[in-house]
Amino acid sequence: MRERLLFLCTCTGLELMTATGITAYLVYLNQPTLALISAVVFAKLLVFHFVVDTYDRIRSRKVAWHHLKS
Prior knowledge:
- By secondary structure, this protein is mainly alpha-helical.
- It is built from three helices and no strands.
- The protein is elongated.
């Protein structure tokens, strides 16, 4: 539970909330084209951050395992 709550304070969590808010607001303003463009741009950014975060977690586990093994 703690990790999920801390996720909301990370860069990726803030970007996710911002993307949702901006896209929803553009839909509310009846601007579907801008909402779609916004969703695509934010999606690329969010995927990039998820990949970097996952890579960092895997790498840190390997380093920790290597130190335990030695």
